[in-house]
Amino acid sequence: MYKRITNSQVTISDSELLRRREENREYLMRLRTDNLLLNHSLEAGVSTGYGDFDYSKIHGGWESPTCQLRGHFVGHWISAAAKHYAATGNNVLKARVDEIVDNLAYYQKLNGGQ
């Protein structure tokens, strides 16, 4: 029988693993909120709400506004950010997650969702 271990029971002390965790945090923070929410704001029929939106930094590929899979990457971002927050307690990253989730709820409501 395996015992489930939670993040609070694990301590990472290896310098290479700590470096990689920090590199992941930097990547998560580098992605702009308006870019992560772009497809959802377009589907809801509203502007992004950011006056300085940089269309040259739109996430391409599956996140292109014309792709049928658009919008799903933000779920991967939320999952990774939540795992990082659970492991580190980084409140700046948590604030970004909260902002994105609040915006997703708003866009869903505008689209007729609950």
Protein described:
The protein contains four helices and no strands. It is mainly α and 114 residues long. It has a domain at 33-48 and 58-114. Helix 2 packs parallel to helix 4 and helix 3 (73-88) packs antiparallel against helix 4. The chain is globular and about 45 Å long. The termini are far apart. The model has no long low-confidence stretch (mean pLDDT 86).
What key phrases describe this protein's structure?
single chain, 114 residues
Query: Cα-atom Rg, whole angstroms?
Result: 17 Å
Most strands sheet = none
Please count the beta strands (DSSP E, at least 2 residues each): 0
Percentage of helical residues? Answer: 55-70%
Regions with little confidence, pLDDT below 50 for 5+ residues? none
Order of helices and strands: HHHH
- Amino-to-carboxy terminus distance: 41 Å
General shape: globular
Secondary-structure-derived class: mainly alpha
Strand residue content: under 5%
Mean pLDDT level: 86
Number of helices: 4
